[in-house]
């Protein structure tokens, strides 16, 4: 009786998993449908909002496929192979990675603020990339260990051998040794061997990437130069492809206006979807080309600054540009304060008058900078004493009423910032937990 009850229990479990998977797929589809309606841009070339034209369409399809990887409840043929599929249900644990990313980055106010300032999305791919780059040893050993255990247990189940023999076979296959003492015979065992072969390729590729990081600068630059050459040709090809698809879409829109119908509408939808992805591919190619052109390594680095000649010149240029922008702002403020409350037409001013406003006769830049710094300290509450106020007002040309007005404005701004911070903290504290879906984490 116990032997007859095992298949019945297995069938019940498969039906339960299948029903729960269908419910999860329905929830995922509805979530992405709502996201396509109210979040982000779907397709500016198509009039309506549709999940098929949303940039999250492939994310939704990928999640639905993951939630349908399981043994079918009813098996007619290839029973050993289909029963092996249940071992891949662990792929659904990607939701744990998403929850981990949300806990580490997304639900933290400081991380969201830094992401907004640096224009860097706190996506799941960001967590994976940073982990694989800055924690190479820990992540690499963990992934290899999990692959070894997965392949070992799957082989032991498929070939009906001991777990120790399955782990030994897993070691041979992942290490690309192949001693030959264990050979898969069943269909499931051969499928496990194929999966182990794919895992070994992943391990080799990861080790090669880690080794590439320690290449010499000359080798790295030579490889990068060849890659930039390929990207240039790819950029020309995708540019021509974009023009062709755009022309086809324009022609289809004219045909739809002349002969409206479901067929013409479907053609416009498909061409708009295609043009959107072609433009995105062209943009990615251009960004990749620009990023690789800026990543050439220079062999000569200044030991004092730690920067190469190119990096130092770029730093000096950006510093000078920032100084020029700041000086323009100060000049505009000085002219504005001079002309305020005066009945003077700006067009009647000569160049000499403007120079006199910006650089008064007998003035010294250093003295003016110190006076402006003292005024800033006074406005932010750092100054003390009536003598300091009189000296600062005399140096900056501001009256006591103007100084008091600016102090009130600064205090009002500080109160608003404090209120905004309290509101953000309150919202983050009462924020609901989202379901484990990649629709809440950009990949």
Automatic annotation (TrEMBL):
Record GO cellular component, one term: membrane
Family annotation (InterPro entries): K_chnl_Ca-activ_SK, K_chnl_dom
Gene3D superfamilies, per database record: 1.10.287.70
Highest taxon above the source species: Eukaryota
Keywords from the UniProt entry: Membrane, Transmembrane, Transmembrane helix
A Pfam family that the UniProt record links to this protein: Ion_trans_2
GO molecular function: small conductance calcium-activated potassium channel activity
TM stretches of this protein: 12-32, 52-69, 81-100, 139-156, 191-215
Span of domain Potassium channel: 144-211
Keyword Membrane tagged: yes
Protein name: Ion transport protein-like protein
């Amino acid at each position: 009786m116990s032997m007859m009850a095992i298949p019945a229990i297995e069938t019940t479990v498969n039906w339960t998993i299948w029903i729960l998977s269908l419910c999860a797929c329905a929830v995922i589809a509805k979530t992405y449908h709502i996201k396509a309606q109210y979040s982000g841009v779907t397709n500016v070339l198509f009039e309506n909002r549709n999940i098929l034209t949303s940039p999250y369409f492939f994310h939704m399809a990928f999640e639905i496929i993951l939630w349908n990887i399981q043994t079918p409840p009813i098996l007619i043929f290839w029973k050993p192979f289909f029963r092996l599929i249940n071992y891949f249900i662990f792929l659904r644990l990607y939701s744990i990675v998403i929850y981990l990313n949300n806990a580490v980055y997304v639900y933290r106010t400081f991380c969201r603020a830094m992401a907004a300032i640096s224009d860097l999305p706190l996506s799941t791919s960001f967590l994976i990339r940073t982990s694989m780059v800055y924690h190479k040893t820990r992540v690499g050993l963990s992934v290899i260990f999990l692959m070894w255990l997965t392949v070992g247990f799957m082989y032991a189940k498929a070939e009906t051998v001991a777990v120790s023999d399955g782990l030994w076979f897993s070691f041979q296959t992942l290490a690309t040794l192949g001693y030959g003492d264990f050979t898969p015979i069943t269909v499931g065992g051969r499928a496990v061997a194929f999966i182990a072969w794919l895992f070994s390729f992943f391990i080799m590729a990861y080790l090669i990437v880690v080794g590439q990081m320690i290449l010499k600068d000359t080798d790295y630059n030579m490889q990068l130069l060849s890659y930039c050459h390929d990207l240039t040709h790819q950029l020309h090809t995708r540019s021509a492809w974009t023009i062709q698809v755009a022309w086809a879409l324009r022609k289809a829109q004219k045909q739809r206006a002349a002969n409206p119908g479901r067929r013409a509408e479907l053609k416009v939808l498909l061409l708009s979807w295609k043009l959107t992805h072609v433009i995105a591919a062209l943009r990615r190619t251009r960004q990749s080309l620009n990023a690789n052109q800026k990543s050439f390594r220079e062999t000569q680095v200044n030991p004092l600054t730690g920067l190469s000649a190119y990096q130092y010149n770029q730093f000096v240029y950006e510093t000078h540009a920032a100084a020029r922008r700041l000086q323009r702002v100060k000049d505009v403020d000085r002219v504005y304060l001079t002309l305020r409350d005066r009945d003077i037409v700006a067009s009647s001013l000569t160049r000499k008058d403007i120079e006199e406003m910006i650089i008064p006769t007998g003035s010294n830049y250093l003295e003016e900078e110190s006076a402006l710094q003292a005024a800033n300290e006074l406005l932010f509450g750092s100054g003390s004493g009536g003598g300091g106020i009189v000296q600062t007002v005399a140096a900056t040309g501001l009256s006591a009423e103007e100084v008091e007005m600016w102090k009130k404005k600064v205090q009002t701004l500080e109160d608003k910032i404090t209120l905004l911070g309290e509101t953000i903290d309150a919202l983050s504290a009462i924020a609901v937990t989202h379901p484990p879906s990649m629709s809440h984490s950009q990949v």
